[in-house]
Amino acid sequence: MARLALNVVLVLCCSLLHFCCSRPSRTRKAVSARGVEEDDVKSQLERLWQEVNSLKEMQALQTVCLRGIKAHKKCYLTIEEPKHYHEANEDCIAQGGTLATPRDATENNELRDYARRSAPGSRDFWIGVADIVKEGQYVDVNSMPVSYFNWDRSRKQPTGTKRESCVALSVAAQGRWADEVCRSLKKYICEYIIP
Ligand SMILES: [Ca+2]
Question: May I ask which residue range the UniProt record assigns to the signal sequence (predicted)?
Answer without folding.
Answer: 1-22
